[in-house]
Amino acid sequence: MRKVVRLSILGAGTVGGGVLTLLRENADLLEAQTGKRFEVRHVLVRDLSKPRAVAIPPKLLTTDPQRALCDPKVDVVLELMGGLEPARSLIRDALQAGKHVITANKLVMAVSGDELIRLAQQRGVRLLYEASVAGSLPILNALQGSLAGNRISRVVGIVNSTTNFVLREMERAVDAGEPAETAYDAALRKAQELGYAEADPSSDVEGYDAQYKTAILARLAFLQYVPLESIYREGITHLSGRDLLWAKRLNMGLKLLSISERLPDGRLCARVHPTLIPRDCPLYVVRGAFSGVWLQGNGFQEMSFHGFGAGARGTASAVVGDLIEIARHPRSLRIEDPSLRPGETAPMETLTMRYFVRLVTPDENALRALREPLQLLGAEFQPSETLDNGVEQVVLMPPLNEGEFRARLTALREQTGVAMQVIRLL
Ligand code: NAP
Ligand code: HSE
Known about the structure:
Strand content: 25-35%
Distance between the termini: 48 Å
CATH class of the largest domain: Alpha Beta
Number of helices: 14
CATH superfamily of the largest domain: Dihydrodipicolinate Reductase, domain 2
CATH topology of the largest domain: Dihydrodipicolinate Reductase, domain 2
Number of strands: 17
Largest sheet: 11 strands, mixed
Low-confidence stretches: none
Bound molecules: NADP nicotinamide-adenine-dinucleotide phosphate, L-homoserine
Number of domains: 3
Radius of gyration: 23 Å
């Protein structure tokens, strides 16, 4: 690679702005690390007149993707715009043109990662995407590098910072005796202002963003193709202040978790859902805009990563790390794909888990009808409480088969009309 590495940056929003800042602030360090200088030649945006947090010389800005991609002098294209299209086509075009690509786009990598990685290999260029999962955490590099000699059995992560931030703010409101629902709205707005949230924040709160990241993580941890649709997904929109209050009473934390694990029968199960975790879980302390990943493997036993999972600088740190890797090793083709096995995935219904169930009924009579069938399943009842909207009863269930328990609850809900909040325990 030449002494000067020339870049096209597609997108100058939160992440693109962070990357431009870091490239400027750490220019001398990057040169010391690689023996090369980095020169930005094009910055693709939608709107040339938009005010930007980072000063960009107007001559670099363009709305024409071809200008950014077809420049023969450009060595590396950084796709930091987001969304499936046109991002995916632009990555494809850049690889076809023989350029290395770095992307922070988990949607593209979850949906079309296989095809794009193959294309990069055919063209003899690098496609790196560390920033696509858990922002600044070097988890993808660790899985492909230092930890690659382990059989990974489980990956548990808080991989969406927006929801972790929102849950933390709801928790604070509950502690202060304020409405958690108001805190939810305010926290989501703040996460958008701070650049943590996706362009469409429903991707965060409905669990899609975590689902994409789970597909990428599981694929690298287990070297198995994990179709997106095989990953169970549940977001945080149905959680309330009462759930967070109960988490505290039970001495647990409530987090949106990404869990992928190899089952004893060899199948892989991957899922995203709110989960109650005990205080001694390494992810308990992961709060606010932080992400965390906790791994188990047959060599290292267990390990956890904890750091900024979103935001301009944290994410830029991962992108610039990928850039340094390309500058140092433009030809190195790491595992990244060829031995991917199709493998079998197991649906959630096959798992056995413990559950928290919060029942709210208009009166004690309806509760009585539910107590016996739940008792038969081994329920442990917490003291019931009268609230403004009825009587609340929390029960903790022993390990039960997910499919059978959910079917039983659906039948009970239909018979009694009682509202039930079900949260799984780790
Ligand atoms: P963002 O703030 O919305 O910025 C997107 C940038 O891309 C903007 O500069 C926008 O131009 C440009 N852009 C979007 N669509 C375009 C199009 N069709 N043509 C030309 N330019 C286009 O998004 P972001 O938060 O930086 O996220 C970028 C990517 O990084 C996404 O894939 C996201 O999931 C991922 N990511 C984000 C974070 C984070 O903390 N934000 C962390 C990790 C990964 P204008 O400015 O003119 O509108
Ligand atoms: N919206 C994402 C999050 C950005 O909140 O985690 C980082 O990928």
